Amino acid sequence: MILNTRKRNTTAFTFMAWASFIGAFLAMFIGIYTLEESLSVKGYFAVCALFLTMSAFVLQKVIRDNLEDSYDSRKRNTSAFTFLAWSYDDAPLQAVEKVTEEL
């Protein structure tokens, strides 16, 4: 099994992504908390915000997994590589083997 040790994102980009997510999440709930509506309206907005956040994570994971699965199953080899592999003629190798057998 070959392990991919290449990191897709830098540490700074990862930090920026988490910091912006946490900042937006806090701003949203501060806005809901300071909203001048009844508790039931605030609760509705909070539950909708949590559901939207959770569904965004799940959707992102499903899309990524589907793309990785389709890449692994269909794109292991390019069409050019497959064509060359199937159309390979080993006559030059046979000639080399014949010469080495004569030696």
From TrEMBL:
It comes from the Bacteria. Residues 13-65 form the YiaAB two helix domain. InterPro entries: MFS_trans_sf (IPR036259), YiaA-like (IPR038972), YiaAB (IPR008024). The chain crosses the membrane at residues 12-35, 41-59. Keywords: Membrane, Transmembrane, Transmembrane helix. SUPFAM superfamilies: MFS general substrate transporter (SSF103473). PANTHER family: INNER MEMBRANE PROTEIN YIAA, INNER MEMBRANE PROTEIN YIAA-RELATED. This is YiaAB two helix domain-containing protein.
